[in-house]
Write the structure tokens for this entry.
Amino acid sequence: MNDPDPRTEVITMGRVGVDIYPQQVGVGLDEVESFAKFLGGSPTNVAVAAARHGRACAVITRTGDDPLGRFVHRALHGFGVDDRFVTAVPGTATPITLCELFPPDDFPLYFYGRDPAPDLLVEADELDTGAIARADLFWATGTGLCREPGRTATLTALRARERRHPTVLDLDHRPMFWGSREQARQHVFEALPLATVACGNLDEWETAVGTRDPVEAARRGRELGLSLAVVKQGPDGVLAADDTGLHRAPPVPVEVVNGLGAGDAFGGALCHGLLAGWPTERTLRFANVAGAIVASRLACSDAMPTTDEVLTVLETTVEGTPRVR
């Protein structure tokens, strides 16, 4: 893998694929009449989201050597994300993810082509560890640890950072990719001390550190050496702990269409706030709004908001709370 442009600010690593979303809401896949395809995969979407905020981004991942793999490259080019670390694995298929849309909070996912998934076949000796070390921000995921050789490659990339801040571990727990929660905890717990930032929802923090209590989860994350622990609490907003104490951001009222991309939009906005050097509370509010905007739209990658879109919502408040329409 070649060194990226020295301007690269954000490098993400992990899952990629093609999202196949129904164009009808509120019906099962057996009744859906039409679909649309979009670039998918959480860390790939995070790179797209950060690029929407003007950040120079690259992705480390692999696809199948197939037409959908070519679609991934074309989509990344369209979003302005560097694809030079995206390579094909002969004999594998680019993964497909289908979903059903039952707003406001039921979005079943169906994964195809992930046995083996090309993005989990990144080898440690393929990595440009110098580029990873030099990036202003590096983003890895818990899912990247679920099998070899991707697990060793992910840990190698994290170690290459030598805990340079910000090095982010998105806890990103997908139970279907693990034999058990205990197995996931073992490997995520190994990776956490290599990061300086970790983010996840209550279930993901329980997997990582053994508790669903948000304050206790953040405390345990900090004990492992994190500079920033971010706990997403759904309708209770977001809690974070850093060197200055605990910070809370309220939830953002939104008419949900598809909640699947909200966390990735949050992640891209978190990258932007971290690189901008904003106070934690400002970063959380900005990221919350970015996530809410995407939850109000059908797609994930295509729906990622620009900085101006997020700021416009932040400036429109009801009793001090942003609203998304």
User: Anything to note?
Assistant: The radius of gyration is 18 Å. The mean pLDDT is 93.
